[in-house]
Amino acid sequence: MRKFSVVVTEKMLPSISDKLQERCHVREWDRTDPIPRELLLKWLADAEGLFCSGDVQVDDELLSCAPKLRVIVKSAVGYDNIDIEACTRRGIPVGYTPGVLVEATADLTFGLLLTVARRLHEGWDRVRAGKWENNTEIPFGIDLYGKKLGIVGMGQIGAAVAKRAQASGMIVLYTNRRRRRDEEKIQATYVKLDKLLEESDFVVVLTPLTKETRGMFGAEQFSKMKRTAYFINAAPGAIVDTDSLVQALKDGQIAYAALDVTDPEPLPPDHPLLTLPNVFITPHMGSATIETRNRMALLAVDNLLAGLEGKRLPTCVNESVNYSSETD
Ligand SMILES: NC(=O)C1=CN([C@@H]2O[C@H](COP(=O)(O)OP(=O)(O)OC[C@H]3O[C@@H](n4cnc5c(N)ncnc54)[C@H](OP(=O)(O)O)[C@@H]3O)[C@@H](O)[C@H]2O)C=CC1
Ligand SMILES: O=CC(=O)O
């Protein structure tokens, strides 16, 4: 059987490496820094498949350097680094990995909320510094029970976060572009963004990064939030205007922020966010569990092999070009 030629721009997990190598000649960028653009374009000259990471901009220029490309996949649910219209114009299906990362990302997102609400990280800092002899000095957090959680972007992960919050006795508000039909199931109340900002004790962002959501959280939005509010972001960093967030945290416009994503990413060591006492940051690890990352990688490979074999991708962003050469 002929082997396909593919480019992988991130270090492959052992769980997919053998499966891919069995069917493909793989050119793998296995370093932690992003693949240099020039090298990637060179590698793509004869590539039939691309397994790309979030740091690769898939645009017209890249596609025009890859005349044999038949499928692009990403092991993630967000695909804002890929120009989907340009791929669709060329008939290239783009595979992604929705669903399989929902519970892990919801755990991390709710974990961020719980960490800052109860100031777990500050407690750990004190323990490490040997400062736990005086019980009145420990950082007091706030109760979750009875508090309002506003979810901006009530999709699959949003709904899974809502469930966790409700188990802790929180009241859940949400906003989307469209009101969900299954509100009874998710037990959450739809409100407009402004009302959500004004009423919520915790605001969690879980929208995709689109033209509409880029910079959606700026000075105006933070000024509408309660001064006691906690802001939690697990969605792409560029949804938040970072300078405005820094200012809001400095001015006490909001109480605290917990972020799994930032703009830029990674944050340079001298970034102002890292100097603030009321912020807690994790390095984009929402889906980073052993089981979930393996499921994502395997689904990405299934998408890749399906595209290379001229079959329908199991999970495709641009369905209009997702067809099987055998039956469609
Ligand atoms: N931190 C991490 O490691 C991870 C982060 N994520 C991020 O989580 C996010 C959500 O993923 P997932 O739940 O699977 O995606 P879904 O597509 O299921 O949910 C996204 C939700 O956002 C809503 N939405 C879209 N545009 C807007 C808008 N302009 N205003 C308000 N709501 C909007 C959608 O509803 P409607 O269309 O009705 O507006 C939808 O309900 C993604 O951005 C993804 O990148 C995912 C995995 C890991
Ligand atoms: O940010 C992660 C993703 O899957 O999207």
Please give a structural write-up.
Its EC number is 1.1.1.79, 1.1.1.81. One of its GO terms (molecular function) is glyoxylate reductase (NADPH) activity. It catalyses: (R)-glycerate + NAD(+) = 3-hydroxypyruvate + NADH + H(+); glycolate + NADP(+) = glyoxylate + NADPH + H(+); (R)-glycerate + NADP(+) = 3-hydroxypyruvate + NADPH + H(+). Strand 4, helix 4 and strand 5 (about 95) form a beta-alpha-beta unit. The mean pLDDT is about 95. A seven-stranded parallel β-sheet has the order 8-7-6-9-10-11-12, sandwiched between helices. A five-stranded parallel β-sheet has the order 2-1-3-4-5. Helices cover about 35% and strands about 15% of the residues. The chain folds into two domains: about 5-100 and about 290-320, NAD(P)-binding Rossmann-like Domain (Rossmann fold, 3-Layer(aba) Sandwich), CATH 3.40.50.720; about 100-280, 3-Layer(aba) Sandwich (Rossmann fold), CATH 3.40.50. It has twelve helices and twelve strands. By secondary structure, it is α/β, with parallel strands linked by helices. Bound molecules: NADPH dihydro-nicotinamide-adenine-dinucleotide phosphate (NDP) and the ligand O=CC(=O)O. NADPH dihydro-nicotinamide-adenine-dinucleotide phosphate (NDP) binds near residues 78 and 176. Ligand LL5AMS7Z binds near residues 76, 78, 101 and 287.
In summary, what is this structure?
This protein is α/β, with parallel strands linked by helices. The protein has 2 domains: 4-99 and 290-321, 3-Layer(aba) Sandwich (Rossmann fold), CATH 3.40.50.720; 102-281, Rossmann fold. Helix content is 34%, strand content 14%.
